[in-house]
Inverse folding.
């Protein structure tokens, strides 16, 4: 798999850019190719997703790694292909998209080309809770708060203690942010129960 391409941007058109590295020119499909206009004839690093099917191999490129990761997540949603995923990334920022998923705003999601109500609901079903690490910290905490709505203070304290224990075991803040919403949904008895549940979730991250 090709994780990224580092080289000189030699041309730009409506669908792709060409990047030359060590005498090889890579055609890289992008959501907004002309956003690379200022990089023409300069050396850059493009994060790439190598899309392989029996009848084709395509290289999709992104300025930010988080855009590439969201693209990969979107491809796992039934009804979303590479062109649809690229169209979404070309018209919205990652935090804005994640916020719409977390708020289950299917009306907002159906504004994207090729996304009907059924596909919007499928995106919410498949992605909710899995992308909040890309939200700004303040909005991320607010999302978690709403997911915990109805939980008592004791439960939140247990979760916080469990997360501190998991952090002491070496897990990163990014990993812990990803599992906190799932812990908020669970009904466990004490701190140890939440630690065990957290470990199970972290093994799947």
């Amino acid at each position: 798999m090709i994780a990224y391409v580092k080289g000189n941007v030699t041309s730009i058109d409506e669908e792709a850019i060409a990047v030359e590295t060590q005498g090889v020119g890579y055609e890289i499909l992008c959501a907004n190719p002309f956003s690379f206009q200022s990089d023409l004839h300069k050396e850059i690093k493009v994060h790439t997703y190598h899309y392989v099917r029996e009848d084709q191999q395509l290289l999709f490129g992104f300025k930010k790694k988080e855009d590439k990761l969201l693209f990969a997540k979107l491809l796992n949603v039934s009804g979303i292909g590479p062109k649809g995923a690229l169209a979404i990334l070309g018209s919205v920022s990652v935090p804005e998209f994640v916020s719409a998923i977390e708020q289950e705003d299917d009306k907002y999601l159906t504004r994207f080309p090729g996304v009907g109500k059924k596909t919007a609901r499928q995106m919410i079903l498949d992605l909710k809770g899995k992308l909040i690490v890309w939200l700004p910290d303040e909005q991320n905490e607010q999302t978690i708060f709403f997911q915990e709505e109805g939980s008592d203070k004791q439960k939140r304290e247990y979760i916080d203690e469990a997360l501190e224990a998991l952090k002491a075991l070496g897990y990163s803040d990014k990993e812990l942010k990803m599992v906190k919403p799932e812990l908020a949904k669970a009904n466990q008895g004490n701190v140890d129960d939440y630690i065990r549940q957290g470990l199970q979730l972290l093994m799947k991250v």
The chain has three domains: 4-62, 65-134, 148-202. The radius of gyration is 20 Å. Residues 148-202 form one domain. Confidence is low (pLDDT under 50) at residues 137-151.
